[in-house]
Fold each of these.
Amino acid sequence: MDDKIRQALLKQVEKEPFAQKFGLKLIDLQEGYAKVGMAFTEDMENIFGMAHGGALFALIDESFEIASNSHGTMAVALNMNINYIASPVKGSYLTAEAKESNKTKKTATYDIRVTDSQNNLIAACQALVYRKDKPLPFLGK
Amino acid sequence: MDDKIRQALLKQVEKEPFAQKFGLKLIDLQEGYAKVGMAFTEDMENIFGMAHGGALFALIDESFEIASNSHGTMAVALNMNINYIASPVKGSYLTAEAKESNKTKKTATYDIRVTDSQNNLIAACQALVYRKDKPLPFLGK
Amino acid sequence: MDDKIRQALLKQVEKEPFAQKFGLKLIDLQEGYAKVGMAFTEDMENIFGMAHGGALFALIDESFEIASNSHGTMAVALNMNINYIASPVKGSYLTAEAKESNKTKKTATYDIRVTDSQNNLIAACQALVYRKDKPLPFLGK
Amino acid sequence: MDDKIRQALLKQVEKEPFAQKFGLKLIDLQEGYAKVGMAFTEDMENIFGMAHGGALFALIDESFEIASNSHGTMAVALNMNINYIASPVKGSYLTAEAKESNKTKKTATYDIRVTDSQNNLIAACQALVYRKDKPLPFLGK
């Protein structure tokens, strides 16, 4: 992918408030693809002491956001559909991979998979963006 | 709804780590219904300085979790589908309402709406749980 | 709603090949709203002799198509999410109601409910369209 | 896969009323996998003369039904989420492939892709079943 876009995205994700809140780390980035990691910590537990759906979603959404903006123009999330498959074990390190399944001028779709360190499938997501005809606002800064 | 279940849920949500992380407040609770509020703060911004999809989802998921467990038996999330409709303005106070649309012995479905303080629709969600034949583990504690 | 749009849609639905294939009847039509009926017949059975998911979907999709085109400009389906709730009984008359939950310049969302003649909820659907800036092609014909 | 299950499914699909209605052909069948074909004919057109969403869905749903029942026990559809990506050209021959992405004792998930004869992606679907602890009723008949 374009190196200027890559550097701008890496820098922007690093300082993103939400990514810091969850300790989200960008592991790999290519055009139409992103891999993000997150340690499942105690502040992510729900009323049953299991991983909160919202924590898994934070990880999923981050990989989706990065993959869909990797073409250098702004992508806006329209729809996300998630299947919860297994509960991660406490202390797990979780990884989300977002892969572009299609891209047209106006829309693009992504498949996102969350796995734990034993490669168990934790959640699967299908997501859709509207693609704006505008460059990423932080490009060239 | 059963007062014992209500008190147990209120207490459990109050000490839930994830709810604390996002400042989620349970505003109303009835059987099959929950209303949760969240101030949209700067630590919830994404790479564009807008509300991160994951922050909206945290709010949605909390209302869903509470509504689906309000019958006193454990509910496990299977699927969530979310349409992102508008970006909330910085400093907004957001509210999610989860309403049960159907309940059988094994599954139940919910409609969830997120609105801002001007009552603009921010996101709409449809969600599905598997209902276990087990009482909430923290009941009676 | 605009009477010219209404008449054009009524006429177009009446001669739609797909609607004829399933015996779909437009029962009510307003701006952002459509109600469609279908008798569940034997040619709609699946390998278990129950209603094929595809038959329920045909009914759902028809109400969605009509409601989303009721503003007089072309709407194109982007995403549909459906929860199957109960199996209709053989010989049931099923009804789908599509209600617009939101509309912006570029997109609109719909909630669709399928019920049987005893008013049991059979399926619930959430759907999203992209709104083109083009009048319905068959308007004014 | 088990040959008895394969033969029973092949036979059952062949006589399924809904499959006959759409001219659906089972092209390939393995455990957790099914490939189904359909010629896009004029009786599948919508009010714009394009492929009706319901026709694409019929094809998708058939591949999903077969893949999810290929283990020899009954699977019941709970949720389907579909992204419409491109309109097929009139006269196209469409193919849906359903692949199991996960299977537990109680649930299983599937990714389904519809492509045309030029291998263009037409629609993508993510689907979820509840797995009953019952053999297929037509096994052994």
Amino acid sequence: MRAVDKVLEARWVIPVEPHGAVLGNHAVALAGDTIVEILPITSAREKYTDAHRVELSEHALLPGLVNAHTHNPMTLMRGMADDLPLMTWLQQHIWPAEARVMGPEYVRDGVELAIAEMLRGGTTCCNENYFFPDVQAATYLRHGFRAVVGLPFIEFPSAWANSRDEYFDKNLAVHDEFKGEKLVSTSLAPHAPYTVADESFARIRMLSDQLDIPVHLHLHETAQEVEDSRKLHGMRPFARMQALGLIDERLIAVHMTQLTEAEIAACAKAGVSVVHCPESNLKLASGFCPAERLRGAGVNLAIGTDGCASNNDLDMFGETRTAALLAKGVSADASAFDAAFALQAATLNGARALGLGDRIGSIVPGKQADLVAVRMDALETQPVYNPVSQLAYATGRHQVSDVWIAGVRKVENGALCAIDTEALRAKAQAWRARIAAN
Amino acid sequence: MRAVDKVLEARWVIPVEPHGAVLGNHAVALAGDTIVEILPITSAREKYTDAHRVELSEHALLPGLVNAHTHNPMTLMRGMADDLPLMTWLQQHIWPAEARVMGPEYVRDGVELAIAEMLRGGTTCCNENYFFPDVQAATYLRHGFRAVVGLPFIEFPSAWANSRDEYFDKNLAVHDEFKGEKLVSTSLAPHAPYTVADESFARIRMLSDQLDIPVHLHLHETAQEVEDSRKLHGMRPFARMQALGLIDERLIAVHMTQLTEAEIAACAKAGVSVVHCPESNLKLASGFCPAERLRGAGVNLAIGTDGCASNNDLDMFGETRTAALLAKGVSADASAFDAAFALQAATLNGARALGLGDRIGSIVPGKQADLVAVRMDALETQPVYNPVSQLAYATGRHQVSDVWIAGVRKVENGALCAIDTEALRAKAQAWRARIAAN
């Protein structure tokens, strides 16, 4: 173990583990990329006299947020087409625009814009799902951002691959290329039951076992998807995934707006993680995920923003607040999805979904130092009765002041440490012209 | 008409009237407190050579947002008690806390904190509903903030009044005291059907006619309220209000989560305004207002944050986004409650609900210069395909840079012009100690 080189002193440390804990005037001691100790500030000053001290006297310090489902290159399509039914949106707007620009440069620049937005909003890890995973992985590594990069599979030719075999070959090459990286890992990302055949799912299931990596899948996003599957396959998509052996602890099932009690129980028993994307589900009128019932059944429930083309942001504070509010409305229970659980869903549960529960998601000795400081002295969060409540219900992402990933400072006093925002804005505007052109 | 003394030059002017309009590189010319003309920047520079120019080169300029339902003194109780069923929340937390602190000082300081938060978030007018309307009115006037102050009525003694007659006497005195003020006017604010008797409603109805002021009423907030009324009065609260003559164009009906088609049609026919408070309804699990059906029926639909004890903020950008997203989910139609309508609901419809539709709510010559500039160059709103979409779905209130009320600058480049935020924060923290004490 390296010596403690950094001590972050906060008005409140909110470690997420133990659940609901709020430690007033505590410090987090770091050695390199690792959390070593959480202790009172007064003790830290006596014990770690040589370490660099960071004073966060009006701040809550919490684990970095984990965005458990996103399509980050689409950040360049933010607000391109709104207020449209799903199929009109996809077929007349998103797909034609993607056809115009899809390629490594678009993916790289979109991911870069997303990294800047995520960092400024306190997100330190994302679960990515798009084409050109090689470019994504390289971009995340270049920026020192933690990501699980999905290896995309769909039964259609794309700019990424032309045939089933080419998808698998290229995806495996990406997996091999980035194996052993500390910040970036991979998952298998079959698009959805309605766009992937049984044979492909069988290969994905086998690879998931062999490589020991998660499967990241859109599942039961809409009632239409379920109905179509009943007609085509004689069963609901969930049952088909069960028959194919995919319902297990490696599955990251995204959306899940349509669920029977038996399906919820099966998720809990098998250890499936569900990623709730409340704002995407609302905006596309996809349905309501039974988030509180999933939580009650003991299912690991995480939160994702989905892509910016449908959301239209990567704001995990906002998404978590929406999740907490919506769960109360949908379950008709004001005590549902409480503030402490909301914070856990946005951090530790996301980490667990991604298979990173032992490395990130809470402020615990031995875990990676992915940390976020949030200013609580803004008038918008005054007065403070309970910092956990303020974080869940009143804090805006613009109150994030400082961010560390694996011990490296990424945001300092509200400013990105290593990203040129002017250049990024210019790039985004150039892509707008290309994407909108027709 | 005074001469044009100020010209605000914006990248985009979004006047709300005509509906959906986006005027690129336009200017708004002001004379004192009044909007005189909207014209291209190039023309404005030729025509108004002597006026003070304000360059808003990366900004959208829109009408100030109208928060159509709030209890602003409760801003001091933000996050005091969360995740609780309505009656536990009220009876065990809110009412005892109010009993400890209710009085002119608490109301004054709470309103002041709320004004600061509202201004920073682009809200320029609110529809207030609380005790001590005299103190509220004086505080809004002192800060030059536009407000309709509710004259509260409830069949219980309070720190404000001890008997029915005292409520009416004191309320009328407040109405008389502030009659003729330009920024502050009054409404009659009977609390709710379940806390106000028929005789009192009859007096309120009569006064509303005599004084020509709105009636601001919580109505059909929960299914329980409707059910209780059926048991007690043999009819739904809406029917009781109809029988009492209150369903008319002066009624501001707040919440309205329970509505039959006939009730919606009756609202449209009578010209009732409905204030939708989506986040409060979600957080307290009160039910879902059929916002899209109300809109479809032609009912004037406005948006309110409700009080900070239940929301927990006064963020009209956030509330409007939630309203738009939730309406799509509830109506199962992604094209429902589109971005342009969302912006109209948050501005012009709020103004109309308050009886101020001819004075504020849109950027139109002759209207008051209540204006908000929003920076669109933040990475979080890049790139910009459509500024109206960005405002509805991606903009955070922290992007508000400049605010004018009646032509007077209230926020300049993100900073409050005439409020000492340090002093305000200290006051809020002092109240926290008193409110939480027990």
